[in-house]
Amino acid sequence: MADGRLNASLDELIEAQGYGRAPRASGPSSQRVQPYGGGRSGGGRGLPRQGGVTRISETLDDTATPQNAIKVGGTQDAKDIAHRICESCRVGEPPALLTIGGQSINQAVKAIAIARADLSKEGLQLSFQPAFRHTDRTKPLIAFYVAKERSQRPHSTQGDDVTLTVASGSKIVPVAGAIAGKIRENLKISLMAIGVDAVTNAVLAVGNARLFLEQDNYDIRVEPEFEKVEKNGQLMTSMKLSLIAEAL
């Protein structure tokens, strides 16, 4: 495109460029927050089963989370959660946010975006990495590991900006393959999502893309922010997730 920016549906991109097959994922690296919150073996393995069915409450592994972790409910006020994030960042280390379900994930992302906007006025930059709390990487069970820093993080990728739209019906694993493919093409990527299901799919896709990129010695951090977009003639608030690729 003339302006170097691609605005496309991820599903269209996957179909056009063949990103449907996920790359092989190697074991989690010890150089950053691991894609599984509980460590190399992944959350939930070896836990007891009842009647041959593993209960969700028994498959969550949060052993790597800090003591100031916040459990986020789907009905909690994102501004209240953001306030707690800001207070933790001002006096010490950022908290991890523990989520179960799409509504919970959506509130967590909104809270981090609000806190990020507030703390940027104080010279702090916030980002997060999603880690799985369950061995099934399509389940909406995510730990958000928040990081802070004083200066703007330099982007490790160069080239055109690519803005990709994640929809409520987007398939998580192919979307993750598309993200990994674009990072391998040395492009800066942002995801746009409107609505709970779309935001959830975007977060789960980033978590899977982190695993796909391990063999390439890359990892991903996410910087969330609200952005106004026009859809069907109406101005709507979308969630923009800027993906920062970092060499391990």
From TrEMBL:
PANTHER family: STAGE V SPORULATION PROTEIN S. Residues 19-52 are annotated as: Disordered. Residues 36-46 have a biased composition (Gly residues). This is Uncharacterized protein. InterPro entries: Alba-like_dom_sf, SpoVS. It comes from Volvox reticuliferus. GO terms for molecular function: nucleic acid binding. It comes from the Eukaryota.
